[in-house]
Amino acid sequence: MNHNERAEVLIDALPYIQRYYGKTIVVKYGGNAMISDKLRETVINDIILMKCVGINPVVVHGGGPDISDFLNKLNKKSEFINGLRYTDEDTMDIVQMVLGGKVNKNLVSLIEKFGGKAIGLCGIDGCLLKAKKLKSDIDLGYVGEITAVDTNILNTTLSAGYIPVVGSIALGEEDNKSYNINADICASKIAAALKAQKLILLTDVPGVLMDPSDSDSLLSVLRLHQIPKLSLEGVIKGGMIPKVDCCVEAIRMGVENATILDGRIPHSILLELFSHEGIGTMIY
Amino acid sequence: MNHNERAEVLIDALPYIQRYYGKTIVVKYGGNAMISDKLRETVINDIILMKCVGINPVVVHGGGPDISDFLNKLNKKSEFINGLRYTDEDTMDIVQMVLGGKVNKNLVSLIEKFGGKAIGLCGIDGCLLKAKKLKSDIDLGYVGEITAVDTNILNTTLSAGYIPVVGSIALGEEDNKSYNINADICASKIAAALKAQKLILLTDVPGVLMDPSDSDSLLSVLRLHQIPKLSLEGVIKGGMIPKVDCCVEAIRMGVENATILDGRIPHSILLELFSHEGIGTMIY
Amino acid sequence: MNHNERAEVLIDALPYIQRYYGKTIVVKYGGNAMISDKLRETVINDIILMKCVGINPVVVHGGGPDISDFLNKLNKKSEFINGLRYTDEDTMDIVQMVLGGKVNKNLVSLIEKFGGKAIGLCGIDGCLLKAKKLKSDIDLGYVGEITAVDTNILNTTLSAGYIPVVGSIALGEEDNKSYNINADICASKIAAALKAQKLILLTDVPGVLMDPSDSDSLLSVLRLHQIPKLSLEGVIKGGMIPKVDCCVEAIRMGVENATILDGRIPHSILLELFSHEGIGTMIY
Amino acid sequence: MNHNERAEVLIDALPYIQRYYGKTIVVKYGGNAMISDKLRETVINDIILMKCVGINPVVVHGGGPDISDFLNKLNKKSEFINGLRYTDEDTMDIVQMVLGGKVNKNLVSLIEKFGGKAIGLCGIDGCLLKAKKLKSDIDLGYVGEITAVDTNILNTTLSAGYIPVVGSIALGEEDNKSYNINADICASKIAAALKAQKLILLTDVPGVLMDPSDSDSLLSVLRLHQIPKLSLEGVIKGGMIPKVDCCVEAIRMGVENATILDGRIPHSILLELFSHEGIGTMIY
Amino acid sequence: MNHNERAEVLIDALPYIQRYYGKTIVVKYGGNAMISDKLRETVINDIILMKCVGINPVVVHGGGPDISDFLNKLNKKSEFINGLRYTDEDTMDIVQMVLGGKVNKNLVSLIEKFGGKAIGLCGIDGCLLKAKKLKSDIDLGYVGEITAVDTNILNTTLSAGYIPVVGSIALGEEDNKSYNINADICASKIAAALKAQKLILLTDVPGVLMDPSDSDSLLSVLRLHQIPKLSLEGVIKGGMIPKVDCCVEAIRMGVENATILDGRIPHSILLELFSHEGIGTMIY
Amino acid sequence: MNHNERAEVLIDALPYIQRYYGKTIVVKYGGNAMISDKLRETVINDIILMKCVGINPVVVHGGGPDISDFLNKLNKKSEFINGLRYTDEDTMDIVQMVLGGKVNKNLVSLIEKFGGKAIGLCGIDGCLLKAKKLKSDIDLGYVGEITAVDTNILNTTLSAGYIPVVGSIALGEEDNKSYNINADICASKIAAALKAQKLILLTDVPGVLMDPSDSDSLLSVLRLHQIPKLSLEGVIKGGMIPKVDCCVEAIRMGVENATILDGRIPHSILLELFSHEGIGTMIY
């Protein structure tokens, strides 16, 4: 690439940098982008760049595969009910150790390796996330739903220049037990509580496709009012339903817009934020 | 107890509260005080009370027994060399999960249960503790020695009203790997870096005893210059030697004084801080 | 008292310390608690302890007996009309000297003796209290009623870490003369203007008693709506009426609650604030 | 006076206003300027104007005549030893009441009458002035010499926009008793502790005169090095000696300059500060 | 003038200084007061004095005569349509150079010569003034009307202690071209946006006269409701109409009052602000 | 360019963005980069991007060609002595109008057009640059050398988020006249006073060339100690000498490094700051 082209790219990014300056963007980090070493590095670098150009990124992560791995080592079977992990007390212990001790701290470590400053938190810290037992026909154990978000520790660490990295665990508001929470929902609730500019959900699909077999049929932009129709028509279906729901919920609570983004594309966050077309499905 | 007596105790505490107001006290929390549910609650309550009366407490913890337990579950044997756990890469993973994900977050959770506000950190967060591989004749794996302390995240969270709780893990300054660090040493280094007023090491002994079989022979006060003689005479010996060393090191780096305290006595921290006699061995 | 008991008292106080942290409490200081040297010291120590545990105490005082003493020395008779001192210009001069120069500065001096930091003020300073002549059938001279409270000097000194001590004199809004004000009313008006958490009136009785001859008949808690009935029944009578009125007035203007407290009991303020039962009559 | 002349005076004052902007000036207020109603008003207005044009004035006062008057009323004789009032415990009580309760608060009241905001303090408040018993061949009772000045309460009230008015009483550093202090010395010590720009001593003479019988022989300017010679020659003599000493002491401790000013001339402070010639004797 | 008289003037100014303390006053500076060297100095000194006594002055200026002079040098004729200069692109260039480069910087220079601190701005700086082309039957070129005022740069420089001096040019909100704006209107819009206490328009007439041939017929005070009648009667006429309109507009947008002042009288601003009668026509 | 390449450029810039975060960079803007409309836009966009990524850019400019043009219009000949414009009083007037009123405000306008916030200043504003007449064998009129830099107005506007744009005029410290200053020297002195990280001089050559006829012979890096030898050898010669001198002077006064950069290359600032090789000659 020659000089002119390099400069062009930086200057093309300028209006987007101006638009996002000082804004908060919550990134739900998961899927292949968290498993592949190479992709992990590109995501981390994207997040550091966001911070450098004046954006306040907040990273939210789960860690399903790591949890399952670890349960395997302990000869404990992972059991799922309607897509949610059945979480007895012993399993919750493992969830907390894997999310809070392994995945979380490793992400912090990686950010610092590339010159960023990060703080690893989970919903227990500073009472960030309070929860109660999720209502469900079949008992799911310590699977919770969020009842309150106290963003104080996020604001404190953001304004001190850190990138907060949050594992998806919450504190039981009545029993002070730890609860396992869906990471997409954590991200959505945190974005809403922070009145974030944007929620980004990193996934393993290109976004919402009109025709799932054709990646060129990506819907770049989706308005709230189009969603019911597309759901009825089956365009939004399967695993995409709860993701779209998370986006809708966040927007209804004051987030400007939300994007479902393909985490398998290197630097997909940068490309989404700092170029004209964007590359995922943006809902607003 | 009647009214007069209750009031007397509060008023007796007044000059000590005035003395410690706005000062930082680092508490190394370990031993039985961390294992027994009952003692754990009294320690946590003591720490919250410290915060309430204007002291800035910082809690540092290890978690040896929990680590060993967990390695057992995985059929991995704990191996110790000169009192230090041999820590290969897999073991380090477990150490990080247990300290950072289990012990640390459970302490935070407990503080919040009793009305305090806490943040769980380890040395990786905000580059709080940097380390390199500990020099040793026999290879110890990922056992490290601290090379730098960045207190910024502690100051940020303290001034935002939180009690920081720190697990004894550090970030390799060259390899960005996690290192296992002795928790007493973590506490000592952090106290020094914060120019703390006091370092408290909670242990399972009454303090330094002239005659180990007689708990009435406790040395309440120990001056730096007395230590070499007492070491030669064998009064300071065994597991007490590294603890005294930690205290001496902290004082040499600017901490006002350090106390080795019996964590088995309920509310030993309160009794030490807020009554005339104190109950451990204070070194200054 | 043994170690355990001492620790217990401190820990029992913890939830109350947490509740009052950062709150403002106005204490009307008078009666025997101001005359007896011994009681004076216990009150002063209670107030310093309040400050130490993060409460913002404001002390308001009168000084009737000292004024009468001094008038006696000058062979001037104290004259009371409906319980209010007839205050001609000469008498007002004496009132101002005794309250502002003697009682006030001696309290400040005593607080400093025990390690607190205090500032002695009267309503003239910083236009804290403005007044006009009290309307009355019989002329009372320079007896005033408060027309405005400017809390700026209280906020300034509180946030600089001082305990303000206020003598019950106000500045005539029209004539710039000094006016003699009832100290209970001063305390009530100041508490209201500061939106204080609590008003405490120290008196020489145990509180509101159902049967005045039986100190066990103390009403620990009194709700606003119960007061008219108890007044009609004569349970609230005599000198208790204006005290209850002060409390009611303060609560109506935004103070959370008000307590009539027996200043003859040593450390009655501490016992009221930091123990479960409390010992006076709390109105809310 | 016509328009042009009025404007001329204001504009002539401009360079002086610029010079003193943000500077602290300590005014010792005493003598006829404090007794005559008319002069009192002009002094008070001068001080308010100082505040308005960005100067930080601090007023220090004694009150000898008022004290003597009041002792007379109590049939107590004023006794002076080497120009200092013998001050037994009873007398000290009266001194404190008259200075702290009467003179001080009346000055505050007067400042507020003319639109200023003032706070009345004495050396006891905020431990502003600490003292010990003045060494003397003949016992003088509670006459003290200043051992420490804590300017915190002055800085707090100045920066909150108030004019501090300070009565010349100090707190015994060992016995916590009140001590009677010479007001010129109070002003000098406070000016030094505040690193004031200027100390002004209001007196009943025109300044230092070469020929005491000829007011045209006023020395407008006096340099430190000239003073010993003028003392030997008897030009500085009698009551002028301690005043000049106060000025010299203040300058040695860091005050820029000090002026002995005739308080009998209306608005002498304004004329000294805001016109070319000045009207007193300035020492530097 | 003797001492007493000098002091009298300063003291007479005191209540006015108190009234204006911390308030913002916008001065439209023009006419003879800007052309005569002597008058220019008196205006500048008045403005510095305002700053010294705690007022926040903002100076707004045009520069018609200088522009015409310069156009002459370039053999370009000044052309006026309904009192507004026809401003083609070349002329606008000259306007910008003369106002922004010459008149503006020379005023700043003069303020600094007399000890003030000033910053020279025009409406382009910090997007202070946005404009669009003035609607008009006959094309006026780059003559604009103000569409938005961003006072941020004024507040920034005022609170840093500077006197902002603003040339009457604005930035085209659509074309980013420079626009020539009437300076009276600039001053009025800026005063409104700053919620100023007062707008002062310096002119070459004494104010609004009942009888234009008799300067004693000056209307010192004019209420908004009187204006329509006086306009109908022809008392307000000619060049006075737009000036009165500016005042009315400013008051309607929140400015307390506005004064049309004779800039030919030396120190007319001081006399207006700091003496009882004032000397212009005040509208409120 | 494809997605990957775009992302690559942004990520390549990351370490440079991290390095310059919060640092001040002074850009001397001149030559073709200021004359060509196209280049002007690229420079302005580079500067805005600098601000967006957390750098504090300060722009310093002259305007020789515009000045000559304007003098031509007035039939005034530009006269140069040793490369410096002879500046009589009339010429200085024109210099001030062109630099302060035309070039400066047009740059501000352009920055705002592309979404930045700028403030146009010259050395007169806030006494930013003080000067005296440049000593010279032949009289140069109002050509000055800088004697003092007051960076207060730069710090004020930088911290309020503005990009300061400074025209190269200074205020005579003795005569309060305006002085014409070389813009390279202005930039160097301002960089030194701000303790800037970097000084960039935009010129019309590629940098220091070993062989002036071969642009591949560019010296990318030049250490201070190499300069004398290269001067002797004639590698640094002609117009390059004063530019190198400016850089050396700035570095000696505390600027980290200085770069002579080819302003004819579009986005040369971006390429220099945010890519590995850089494109000019950096001196340190």
Automatic annotation (TrEMBL), chains A, B, C, D, E, F:
EC number in record? 2.7.2.8
Which Pfam families did the record assign? AA_kinase
Record-annotated residues binding substrate? Answer: G63, G64, R85, N180
Supply the alphabetized keyword list.
Answer: Amino-acid biosynthesis, Arginine biosynthesis, ATP-binding, Cytoplasm, Kinase, Nucleotide-binding, Transferase
Q: Which InterPro entries match?
A: AceGlu_kinase-like_sf, AcgluKinase_fam, ArgB, Asp/Glu/Uridylate_kinase, Glu/AcGlu_kinase, NAGK-C
Chain ranges of the Aspartate/glutamate/uridylate kinase domain: 23-261
- Catalysed reaction per UniProt? N-acetyl-L-glutamate + ATP = N-acetyl-L-glutamyl 5-phosphate + ADP
Report the main location listed first in the record.
cytoplasm
Matching NCBIfam families: argB (TIGR00761)
PANTHER family associated with the record: N-ACETYLGLUTAMATE SYNTHASE (PTHR23342), N-ACETYLGLUTAMATE SYNTHASE, MITOCHONDRIAL (PTHR23342:SF0)
Summarizing the function annotation, the protein's role is: Catalyzes the ATP-dependent phosphorylation of N-acetyl-L-glutamate.
Instruction: Tell me what this protein is called.
Output: Acetylglutamate kinase
Source organism per UniProt:
Clostridium weizhouense
Gene symbol of the encoding locus: argB
